[in-house]
Amino acid sequence: MKKKLKFGLSVVLTALNEEKFIEKTVKKTEEALKYSKIPYEIFIVDDGSKDNTYLIAKKIGKNKRKIKVIRNKKNLGMGKSIKICSMKANYKFILLVPGDDSFTKKAIINLASAVGKADFIIGYRINYTKIVFLFRKITFF
């Protein structure tokens, strides 16, 4: 039997070796979602990190009912991580937020405010090459 999903937002925050950015990303996401006043939950997905991303995520999620931490022992990719979270989600809508602190708080608020207004909403980063380190720029291209 399929569970009935409630109105709200399940955020999938994917992270691969993001120990430097994960805490700031989660904090910014929580602030944006509280501002939007939409019911929400956050899935932090450590997608096979080799650094301390998972330990930091567990610390962030400790004693927070709205945050769930999932660990993929090996890198499964963003698509599989979204699928895993969609199966565990309690809300009708899913928002993908990268764990690299590349979305602004305002961008997250804008995306969250579109919940229920369209079936599919895609955000993109027009300033990606300005906000990431040189290594990421090279791997991006």
Description:
- The protein is of the alpha/beta class and 141 residues long.
- The chain has one domain (6-140): Spore Coat Polysaccharide Biosynthesis Protein SpsA, Chain A.
- It is built from six helices and four strands; from the N terminus they run βαβαβαβααα.
- It has helices at 22-36, 53-61, 78-88, 105-113, 128-131, 134-140, and strands spanning 6-15, 40-47, 67-72, 91-98.
- The protein has a four-stranded parallel beta sheet with strand order 3-2-1-4, with helices on both faces.
- Strand 2, helix 2 (53-61) and strand 3 form a beta-alpha-beta unit.
- The longest helix has 15 residues, at 22-36.
- The radius of gyration is 15 Å and the shape is globular.
- The protein starts with 5 loop residues before the first strand and ends with a helix.
- The model has no long low-confidence stretch (mean pLDDT 87).
Could you list some keywords that capture this structure?
6 helices; Spore Coat Polysaccharide Biosynthesis Protein SpsA, Chain A; 39% helix
Summary of the model, kept short:
By secondary structure, this protein is α/β, with parallel strands linked by helices. It is 39% helix and 23% strand.
Secondary structure blueprint with pairings:
Blueprint: E1 6-15, H1 22-36, E2 40-47, H2 53-61, E3 67-72, H3 78-88, E4 91-98, H4 105-113, H5 128-131, H6 134-140
Parallel strand pairs: 1-2, 1-4, 2-3
Helix pairs in contact: 1-4
